[in-house]
Amino acid sequence: MISRGTIRYASVHAHLGRTGSRRDDLESLAYTLIFLIRGRLPWQGFQGDNKSFLVCKKKMATSADVLSCFCPPPFKHFLEMVTNMKFDEEPNYAKLISLFDSLIEVPASRPIRIDGALKVGQKRGRMVVNLEEEEQPKKKVRLGSPATQWISVYNARRPMKQRYHYNVADSRLHQHIEKGNEDGLYISCVASSANFWALIMDAGTGFGSQVYELSQIFLHKVRHGLCPR
């Protein structure tokens, strides 16, 4: 399986190698918040070459009730909302933030004098300072913070085209692969357990053709590979 980022907080879709979206970012945020409250997540502690597979399997088997059982109710509601979002759905950030309003205490009211800060702000933090009062002529220097501006630069690229299948029996594997090849997709990742396959086909592999072979002998491991040649 392919996992991008930290395995502990990665979304289930990231484990499966699917294209990420804002939904996956929010799912990772939910895991992070719950970890900060509980101090531990149920899928911590797995080791070995198939760690990513075991973590993904545990995440898929852990319900929102179990994961947030020691957290205030808003954490469960937040997790349920983000995991039920569609791939291209625009998150309702205002509603997600409002879930936690009940957990934030009203701050104590204290009078704060801000006259000086307002004057500095009106002058944009600049002031005139006289140097060496006795020196003729007087020198003046203007102090202040230099102006800065952020510029974002990125390389535009075409969106990824992927197709994924899971719980595929051996007899149907060839059908999915041939259909993907007809559409310009080639195998980029596979995993297998209990004679069922998870298959990811990608248009960005750079392959022009691909040969695969399904072995009838399974290794003594949970995860098995199907390698393009």
Explain this structure to me?
InterPro entries: CK1_Ser-Thr_kinase, DUF7477, Kinase-like_dom_sf. Pfam families: DUF7477. This is DUF7477 domain-containing protein. With 229 residues, the chain is of the alpha+beta class. It folds into two domains: 12-103, Transferase(Phosphotransferase) domain 1 (Transferase(Phosphotransferase), domain 1); 157-228. The protein has helices at 12-15, 22-38, 51-61, 64-67, 73-83, 93-98, 115-122, 170-182; strands spanning 127-131, 139-143, 162-169, 186-193, 196-202. The strands form two sheets. It has a three-stranded antiparallel sheet with strand order 3-5-4, covered by helices on one side. It has a two-stranded antiparallel sheet with strand order 1-2. A hairpin with a 7-residue loop joins strand 1 and strand 2 (139-143). Helix 2 (22-38) packs antiparallel against helix 5 (73-83).
How would the blueprint of this fold be written?
Layout: H1 12-15, H2 22-38, H3 51-61, H4 64-67, H5 73-83, H6 93-98, H7 115-122, E1 127-131, E2 139-143, E3 162-169, H8 170-182, E4 186-193, E5 196-202
Antiparallel strand pairs: 1-2, 3-5, 4-5
CATH superfamily of the largest domain: Transferase(Phosphotransferase) domain 1
Give the strand order of the largest sheet, numbering strands 1, 2, ... along the chain.
3-5-4
Helix content: 25-40%
Strand count, sense and closure of the main sheet?
3 strands, antiparallel
Radius of gyration: 28 Å
Query: How many structural domains in the coordinates?
Result: 2
Contiguous low-pLDDT stretches (5 residues minimum) are: 220-229
CATH class of the largest domain: Mainly Alpha
How far the N terminus sits from the C terminus, by CA atoms, comes to: 19 Å
By CATH, the topology of the largest domain is: Transferase(Phosphotransferase), domain 1
Arithmetic mean pLDDT: 78
